[in-house]
Amino acid sequence: MPNSPSFFYKKLIYWYLQNKRELPWRTTTQPYFIWLSEIILQQTRVNQGIPYYLKFVKSFPTIEILANASEENVLKLWQGLGYYSRARNLHLTARYITNQLNGVFPNNYKELIKLKGVGDYTASAISSICFNEPRAVVDGNVYRVLARVFGIDIPINSSRGINEFKNLAQQLVDTKQPGIYNQAIMEFGARYCVPQNPNCNTCIFNDRCIAFQKQLVSELPVKLPKTSIINFFFNYIVIISEDDKTVLRQRTEKGIWQKLYEFPLIETSKEVSLSQIKKIPMYLELSKKHRIKSMVLHNEKSVVHKLSHRHLHTRFWIAESSEILQKAIPIEKLGTYPVPVLIEKFISLFFSTETLV
User: Fold this and answer.
1) Which residues pair with 231 in a beta bridge?
2) Residue 176 CB: number of other CB atoms within 10 A?
3) Cα–Cα distances in angstroms (integers) from residue 336 to residues 80, 86, 246, 324, 350, in the given order
């Protein structure tokens, strides 16, 4: 190993203590708050996650209060963060700890990783920060630092790469202060050893970084090609009645946006015209059930909502109804429902925000 563990972690920790950001969850080692921050920060940038963390702490200052909240309230507060399974798992785990573990958070990696929504990274972070257990975290930032400093060209998203990077990370942990070390390497990767154009000339590791010495910084870490993108075509039928009511449906099936609300949705294999959509059986059923008199296309150009492996090409159709007979929702109440950010943006633009609570 070109860099001994002690040399590596001492350099990192010294840099961290001089340069760390003042983040709200860094003022505590209470597992509830660390767990909450780690779940929010999964696949979310720190700057985006901070206001959500503060909202959750204000609304749910204890795990018991979170456990006793309704799932709908949790999803509403989460709205806009995406990957909503994180919010559902957060709520389920809060209930489990409150009801099954008497409100006592597991205090070691072995028990933490059993919790719903908690994987290796999150269990390692909580156990090291809160309980001083020497478990190394490995995320995108850590992969990048280790790949460059140690010159590792094994793909980080391969089975071999995952195992080898985890083993190396574990060897490098400062066993006396693992929580500080883990935060240090994540901070260093996020703020200094960045993906594009890092300032290697002033890096604390530039005298030993193999990638810097061999001019491989832009080539490491290595990743296997991503799965090809699949395109979906969404047509939301926004039904508006003469008495200012509309229709929302809850997505009950597993998958993206489970338990969130949306307007009636018609999926097609490509973009369709008004005459084409009117021939689709689901539209005919909607038209009959809600007495649709006329319909126009709101956005000629589709809104493209990009998810990890799929692109949603979305159009909103405004349908006038003489009367909505089933499950009508007053338009002014739309703001109380947890919806995907795609729907939220449409609501805020199309309907007067002054009427929404």
Assistant:
1) 311
2) 10
3) 14, 20, 14, 20, 16
Q: Which residue has the tokens 């883990």?
A: 182
Contacts of 30 by beta carbon, 8 Å cutoff, 6+ apart: 130
Q: Tell me the residue type at 306.
A: K
Decide the pairing of beta strands 230-241 and 310-321: parallel
What's the rounded Cα separation, in Å, for the pair 117 and 39? Answer: 8
pLDDT of residue 26: 94
What value does the mean pLDDT take over residues 92-116? Answer: 95
Catalytic residue set: 38
How many angstroms separate the CA atoms of 291 and 293, rounded? 6
Give the residue from 299, 303, 317, 293 showing the smallest Cα distance to 238: 317
For 226-277, the pLDDT digits (tens) are 778 899 999 999 999 888 889 999 998 877 788 899 999 999 999 999 999 9
Length of the chain: 357
Strand pairing partners for 234?
A: 267, 314
From first CA to last CA, the distance across the chain in angstroms is 59
What does the alpha-carbon distance between residue 316 and residue 238 come to, in Å, rounded to a whole number? Answer: 7
Q: Vertex 234, ends 270 and 225: CA angle to 5°?
A: 75
Q: Extract the tokens encoding 58.
A: 């204000």
What is the distance between the alpha carbons of residues 231 and 241, in angstroms, rounded to a whole number?
A: 32
Measure the CA–CA gap between 74 and 93, rounded to whole angstroms.
13
Q: Which amino acid is at 19?
A: N
Say how far apart CA 72 and CA 229 lie, in whole Å: 31
Q: Domains plus CATH for the chain?
A: 5-219 (1.10.340.30), 230-355 (3.90.79.10)
Task: Report helix, strand or coil for 281.
Answer: helix
- Residue 221: asked if its preceding bond is cis (omega within 30°), the reply is yes
pTM to 2 decimals?
Answer: 0.79
